[in-house]
Amino acid sequence: MAEAVPDTVITGTHDAAAVLISGFTHDSRAVQHGDLYAAMAGATVHGAVFAAQAAERGAAAILTDREGAERAAETGLPVIVVPSVRPVLGPVAACLYDQPSAHLKMLGVTGTNGKTTVSYLIDGGLRAAGYHTGLIGTVETRIGERAIKSSRTTPEAPDLQALLAMMLEDGVGAVAMEVSSHALAYGRTAGIRYAVAAFTNLTQDHLDFHADLEDYFEAKAKLFTPGYTEFSVVNIDDPYGRRIAQRLTDADQPHWTYSAAAEPSAHWRAAHVEPAAEGSVFTLIGPDDCRVPASVQLPGGFNVSNAMAAIVALVAAGVEPQTAAAGVASVAGVPGRMQRIDAGQPYLAVVDFAHTPDAIGTLLAALRPVTRGQVRVVIGCGGDRDRGKRPMMGAAAARGADEVILTNDNPRSEDPLAILEAAAAGAREAIATGAASAVQVIPDRAEAIARAVAASRLGDTLVVAGKGHEQGQEIAGVVHPFDDAAVLRTAIERSLTEGGASERSMPL
Ligand SMILES: CC(=O)N[C@H]1[C@@H](OP(=O)(O)OP(=O)(O)OC[C@H]2O[C@@H](n3ccc(=O)[nH]c3=O)[C@H](O)[C@@H]2O)O[C@H](CO)[C@@H](O)[C@@H]1O[C@H](C)C(=O)N[C@@H](C)C(=O)N[C@H](CCC(=O)O)C(=O)O
Ligand SMILES: Nc1ncnc2c1ncn2[C@@H]1O[C@H](COP(=O)(O)OP(=O)(O)OP(=O)(O)O)[C@@H](O)[C@H]1O
Ligand SMILES: N[C@H](CCC[C@H](N)C(=O)O)C(=O)O
Ligand SMILES: [Mg+2]
Question: Which backbone phi and psi does 485 adopt, to 5 degrees?
């Protein structure tokens, strides 16, 4: 392993060469007997502070930097000292698990919105092509039919490589995975080379982590360079996608562009798009006169774009276009994405994961044409995340919906009312400049949903946005069980039998 990492120093009283490592983790709380514990500098603490805990839990050795070396040595375990731990996590983990990704067809998806959706659609296409598949992303990790709950969109490198090793062991041949900008900035995917990577779009998010939009873009753009990916698939309806495509063209790197807006210069274009409440049917036109009848069971024009990303990525990975399209068409839904809740109510009720200004605008624009009455949205903004997007989210909601109910969405360590006020300020601004929307603030999410249900009438659309598949509401560091789909269903059922709703609300 030392050869994999330059400038490595091994210290300690043991014969390090003879130490057997059975696993690898960066979290002392997850150490199992025989693990190598990576003690790294974090934003809040240095992992070496937990070296003793790792040793107690049975760590076999510690990987750290100069700052952590002394504390690590105090455990008496062999210590491997490298200049910086994060950059070597990927290569070391890949080495310890015997380079699992080298034996897997890896397909990566990045972009602000659509990663989870496109990954599920790719998974459908891979299955149609006969692959035993792996899936890694926000909602879950799947090894064939076995699902493991995800805690991250893209796991830290030791966990990621361990998952890939489990997949290989299980006979998986191809993996669809989300690659977040955090992952690219931190090098979580180092040690993996993607056969194909797809770019969906880029709009404001995560500016708590990235210095600015340009920094966020450059993190995403890394994936479309030869060290990361062999073949790139890029949405040129998006201005940042056009920049990536231009770079690929300039560097003569293999790539395909796609456009749901039928941009003539795109390698792949959508034609004859027929949108419907249940999804869309379209024709995919590609190089060499390729014409493929395609469809996607997820409603909204943006899901035509997502379906194109998936089909084009699959074809780039060697799947026949018809098979790829059939596999994508077979995906019945993605948990918490445009998920319809039907409890017999006379209006459309949907749970969706829109939690960026662009996603909220896109979502509401997609729901308007299928709504005869009012569009009503229940939405909040996460705490300890990009503060700049909150007024933008409030404004997007006010511009797209007739009625907006602002409510809590994981306030985390922040004051919930301060977060709501930031979103409300954006909504007020939008209304002052022409948006015709009624906005109210109901901090308690279950109450907000009940109030929205009580207001809904025949032909309306009610969308509960921002939490999608999430199963918890994090308030002051405590995660309370909360499932939008279940709460919405119960509220609808109750309204159908009892009618009425709570009277408590706060004026905007
Ligand atoms: C901003 C970010 O990504 N932060 C990550 C970062 O945290 P940090 O630098 O603050 O770490 P720290 O708390 O100072 O700890 C330093 C080290 O001590 C270790 N430690 C800490 C405590 C302890 O008891 N024992 C222990 O070993 C930690 O594991 C870490 O290795 O390193 C930690 C260890 O790997 C991560 O858990 C943590 O992710 C946090 C939980 C997080 O919320 N990340 C989110 C924002 C994230 O990564 N999101 C993206 C994108 C989401 C999307 O758009 O889909 C994702 O890919 O999920
Ligand atoms: N192509 C798209 N363009 C704009 N908005 C989209 C697009 N695809 C999905 N969305 C919106 O974004 C939400 C999140 O979609 P999805 O979960 O697929 O994205 P993601 O990139 O995985 O998000 P995250 O970064 O949180 O994991 C959806 O619920 C929908 O409202
Ligand atoms: N991957 C995103 C999900 C946000 C979902 C939303 N419910 C929130 O809590 O802000 C994040 O961690 O920023
Ligand atoms: Mg995701």
Answer: -60, -45
Sign of the Cα torsion 265, 269, 272, 278 reads negative
Asked whether 413 lines ligand 1 (CB < 6 A), one says no
CA atoms within 13 A of residue 407's CA, in its CB half-sphere? 25
Distance 138 CA to ligand 3 centre (A): 10
ipTM: 0.96
Q: Which residue, 426, 2, 387, is CA-closest to 204?
A: 387
- Write the Ramachandran bin of 40: left for phi over 0, alpha for psi from -120 to 50, otherwise beta: beta
Q: What is the pLDDT of residues 246-285, one digit of tens each?
A: 999 999 999 999 999 989 999 999 999 998 778 999 999 9
Atom of ligand 2 nearest to the CA of 338: 29
For atom 55 of ligand 1, which residue has the closest CA?
Answer: 153
Tens digits of per-residue pLDDT, 144-186?
999 999 989 999 999 999 999 999 999 999 999 999 999 999 9
pTM beyond 0.80: the answer is yes
Is the beta carbon of 57 within 6 A of some atom in ligand 1?
no
Annotated binding site: 28, 111-117, 153-154, 180, 188, 385, 409-412, 466, 470
DSSP one-letter code for 131 = -
109, 113, 205, 338, best to mutate for ligand 2 pocket (most atoms within 8 Å of CB): 113
